[in-house]
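In line with agreed milestones, the collection of sequences with tokenised folds has grown. A representative record is reproduced below.
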Amino acid sequence: MNTIALIFFLFLFFIIVVPITVIIIVVVVKGRNQSWKGTITDKLENTKRDFDTNREETFYTACIKLDTGKDIKMAVDRDRYNDWNVGDKLEKIKGESWPKKV
């Protein structure tokens, strides 16, 4: 019985935990390897209410037009949302997690 439980545990571990961990690592590394320059074109603030707890959550997004012409939307925290303004220039340096205002 112990052998079957161990095999089942290892099966679930390799099917669920390992792929999720690999995906998280790939996303973080990909984000850190990016470098770009752009301008904030819009800021979005969306509020959603959790019906179970009746708690309200606010999500902040910065819309950025890269110098290459591509438009991206970046989820940001409240401090960056309040610090950044439409028209601000941003630069994301390779190896850093967040862009900086230039």
The mean pLDDT is 92. The first strand starts at residue 36 and ends at 50. The first helix runs from residue 2 to 32. The radius of gyration is 20 Å.
